[in-house]
Design goal:
Layout: H1 3-27, H2 37-45, H3 48-63, H4 67-96, H5 110-128, H6 143-160, H7 167-202
Helix pairs in contact: 1-3, 1-6, 4-5, 6-7
Length: about 200
């Protein structure tokens, strides 16, 4: 993958992702206060707009990749689709049986879960083909840096919108930010250990 294609992906992906996070954490909680039906529909669907730009950036990245990278992306997507669809099916059966109570808000987590599982699946596929699981390509930003940046962005947006969030939402976002930060630190430590091991083997 060329450096130019990856830089284009970064320019397209991160602004859209940050816009999605900002909308979800700052504007979407205002929905209960909106009484105009059309305005409520527009506000409810507003997060879909940056998601479309994220998908566009990812599609353009995959189309600009070589055949091996496209295969790795395909494996990651197949794993994500299988895991998320199976979890959705299991959740549907449990809800239909009355074991658990699920409302429509659970659908909001389908796309983020798909992205997370896709990232993990793509990392596994990359290792399987002899690549590194913590980078997108040789000239990319390491995965642990991206995870830490997302954790920082969520923490910052949570702090800015804390007065508009309920205690439940605030706790959920703080937990999400902490979990991502912990994950990023673990990835950084593993990356450092692999580098140390490689240096010892080289010497």
């Amino acid at each position: 993958m060329s450096r130019q294609i990856y830089r284009r992906y970064q320019r397209e992906f991160w602004p859209a992702m940050l816009a999605y996070i900002a909308i979800m954490f700052l504007l979407w909680p205002l929905l209960p206060r909106v009484h105009n039906e059309l305005l409520k529909i527009a506000l409810a669907l507003l997060p879909v707009l940056p998601v479309l730009f994220v998908v566009r950036a990812m599609v353009r990245l995959v189309l600009g990749s070589d055949e091996l990278e496209q295969r790795i992306h395909l494996i990651g997507l197949a794993i994500a689709a299988t895991v998320v669809s199976t979890l959705s099916l299991a959740g549907g059966f449990l809800a239909a049986a009355g074991v658990v109570k699920l409302d429509g808000t659970i659908l909001i987590w389908v796309w983020p879960t798909l992205v997370v599982v896709y990232t993990a699946g793509r990392g596994w596929a990359s290792r399987r083909y002899g690549g590194a699981s913590d980078v997108l390509c040789d000239n990319s930003v390491a995965l642990y840096w991206r995870v830490l940046l997302v954790a920082l962005a969520i923490a910052a947006l949570t702090a800015l919108g804390r007065h508009q969030l309920s205690d439940h939402q605030l706790g959920m976002l703080c937990g999400m930010s902490s979990a991502l930060a912990a994950w990023g630190l673990v990835l950084a430590i593993l990356h450092w250990r692999r580098r140390q091991r490689g240096d010892r083997e080289a010497s």
